[in-house]
Amino acid sequence: MTSSIPSDTLASGESSGIRRQFAGVDIHDLAARYGTPLYVYDAAVIRQRCADLAAWDTVRFAQKACSNLAVLDLVRREGVLVDAVSHGEIARAIAAGYPTTTRQDATVADDLPPADPIVYTADIFDRDSLEAVVQHGIHVNCGSADMLDQLAERVPGANVTLRINPGFGHGHSQKTNTGGEGSKHGIWHEEVPDVLRRAEWSGLGVSGLHMHIGSGTDLEHLATVADALEKTAREIGRSLTTISAGGGLPVPYRSTEARPDLSGYFSLWDATRRRLEDAFGHRIRLEIEPGRFLTAEAGCLITEVRAIKRQGSKKYLLVDAGFHTLARPVLYGSYHPMSLCPAGNPPPGHEPVAIGGPLCESGDIFTQEEGGFVTTRDLPPARVGDLVVIEVAGAYGFVMASNYNSKPFPAEVLLDGGQSRLVRARQTTADLIRGESVSGLPEGDAAS
From the centroid of its chain, how far is CA 181? Predict the structure, then answer.
């Protein structure tokens, strides 16, 4: 499957190290208009990634990857449904226009069960999330047996999906591995018979089955899930009407990384679905749950060089973004392509530089490997005032941002057809201290 996305969006700038536009818009103009650090998303890339998965009955966006309301609205208009992992994400989905009841005409065929617009997926119900699920009638993907009892008490007779841990996992980092004994996620595969009895005793129906082994893994490992899911599906039986392949579709962060064979991956899962349909005698909806795949390549983080210094043999560019803005490098040692957007014409050549942020932490380095080892990146010589563009940053970027060191959240901008639109205002210092008081607050405010 080929992409129709403009080359200036997908190319990382690794060849020349210089980028002056993103999605056809001047990067310095964006920085001048909206300030830095700044997250920018290209709507065309997101639309293309939604279209890349059109073969699946349901594409369900794991919004934890990028939950800005404008992004949720964009994928909704592309026919993508949504997954929520908290009461806050349920509220976001509703605010972005997702209905809380299933449209009865939203089927692929007359005998295919309709898909729930919003699904709540978690390993527990915190009290607020359970209230939101009950209030809005949200379908639940249960990752623990205790959730069944808690839901049955509030919503007798509900149908649920079971998230099963197949006993193995894989991911781009051990911290993103969501299967096996080292993962807290999902119901352990050997406990399925007991959980099914527990669901029956609680009066709940099991209509869906979901497995997810890790984020940013490869198709070879993802494909092993199909066999494990089929085995578990046969244990559950004819009550199943939906199976989900989960997420984890890989995204190329380096120019040497290949794109996944999406058609081959779908064919594998479609064959699994058809065998189950033959066994159960009815149609089964086939879902996929992408997160980073839909938004990672659509986003970049624009940050300004504020200081240049040498520390022994290493040269550092210090920028106004840090791990409070983009946490993936400090959390996972993640690689992001980077390029320089110079204010003028830089001196010729390239030089190895480490790129760090403003935080009072030694780990505030964007060029690091897992374990915290500082590395360098070859870029054209930079000056204070130049911009660094951190690319493939549209997933697990803003959503993992923090106010550490009392730094405000950055702004977010959506680019569409060459036009820019501010979709989140930059946080102010007044926003930072809102809700705090040196003299104490009324008790009612603490729970709101």
Answer: 23
- Rg of the chain in Å (alpha carbons): 23
- With a threshold of 0.85, does the pTM exceed it? yes
360 assigned to active site: yes
| Amino acid at residue number 162 | L
> Which of these is catalytic: 66, 300, 341, 360?
360
Q: What are phi and psi of 197, to 5 degrees?
A: -65, -40
CA distance 326 to 407: 13
185 confidence band (pLDDT: 50, 70, 90) = confident
Alpha-carbon gap, residue 384 to 104, rounded angstroms: 58
Q: Which of 264, 262, 270 is nearest to 287 (CA)?
A: 270
pLDDT in tens, 203-257: 999 999 998 775 555 567 667 788 889 999 999 999 999 999 998 898 999 989 8
